[in-house]
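dumping this here so i dont lose it again. seq + smiles for flavin-adenine dinucleotide
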Amino acid sequence: MEFRLSTEQELFKRMVREFCEKNVEPRSREMDDKEEGIPDELIKGLADLGVFGIMIPEKYGGSAPEGEEMTYANIAVQELGRAEMSMALPVYTLLCLGWGFLITKYGTEQLKEEVLPRVAAGEYFTGIATTEPGGGSDIANIQTSGMYKDGKFIVNGEKVYISGVLESIEQRDGGHITLIRTDPEAGHRGFTFVFIPAKLPGISYSTFDDIGRMALSTGSLVYKDVEVPEYYMLGEMNRGFYLNMEGFNLARILVAAACVGMTEKALEISRDYVKQRVLFGRPLAKFEGISFEIAEDHAKLEQLKLYLQYTAWAADTLYKEPDFISHRDLSRMVSICKMEAPMLGAEITQRCMTHLGAFSYTKECPLGRGLRGIMSYVVGAEGGYHIQKLIIAREYIGDEAVPYR
Ligand SMILES: Cc1cc2nc3c(=O)[nH]c(=O)nc-3n(C[C@H](O)[C@H](O)[C@H](O)COP(=O)(O)OP(=O)(O)OC[C@H]3O[C@@H](n4cnc5c(N)ncnc54)[C@H](O)[C@@H]3O)c2cc1C
């Protein structure tokens, strides 16, 4: 049993932290205030470190540490969460890594050659588009259609609250792995996953006025007779629902990583503050009302961090040894991380704000940005809080706990 990161993993972590402390952290307030998107040089710098190539084999321009991809991705995204607490850059990165991995695994050769080298170079964004106006949690009810005809899918419908809309259309270039209904009679066995470049003719978009992660857009994508060539399909026709669930497993690990990184930094800010803030003639840290809260939060976060590292390792191991655990068992572990990390992070960040008093309510202090950012994952992004409980209950208790069966 080995709990340490390997020497290479430690070096990678140190390298990403140095880059983030020097380049990302100093610009995090400006990114949130100006709402002009993520500066190109930050994406380019991370690409040069190999971050965007973690999930991509060398053959397609990446630098995948074969068999340890999730472990490395977890390290990188945690570091980004520490440095950019509003979580715009961590989320941009985790979407490219988590969902880009499905292209590596299930994409056609033509799709991989077209997209992956550009993702690894930081020139191309890859996101996910499942949510529709009718609801995000009930994925089996999506309506966007994609009739297959003459080697193309003809896509019609609307996706909403999609991250990276401006990034893939106006600011940079990119597209979304999109869940479409290809067999209207077959329920969730009638969905297919296709990659849709966001600039294809027939796609229009609008953006939402979010309260957090201001440097990363969310918006709607409307498809009107959009022709998507067959080579953009991932895996097999009508297997999209299952690939979506597999993709959630990877993306949610990284969501938890971003939240854990952000929360760790929030707690450090509080720890450093209470040591130097003198009240009633002594440092605030001397008062157990404060120090015990920090101690308890540190304990909870350490447990979660270790469980997250274990889950990332389990995901890597499952791809190397398919009999290690089932994908459903991995989903249970992943949902524990996704349920805990945003909610615990939001709670801890709020407590940290109380430790810093009025200063925490200014934009000079990054805690407010962190709270607004992490709330995106509490309310729903990559699957709502309650949905994680539903998955854990289904896998731990059994089908008796499933309300829709
Ligand atoms: C900032 C942000 C970025 C996003 N980016 C993307 C993206 O890139 N791509 C994408 O496809 N989607 C994206 N989403 C959408 C996200 O996936 C959805 O918010 C999520 O799936 C929940 O869907 P919903 O918001 O429609 O809520 P609903 O599905 O309407 O659910 C409302 C509430 O009810 C709860 N709930 C639902 N079902 C049950 C149940 N059976 N029992 C108990 N409680 C239940 C949910 O947890 C939630 O709290 C994003 C969301 C946000 C906030």
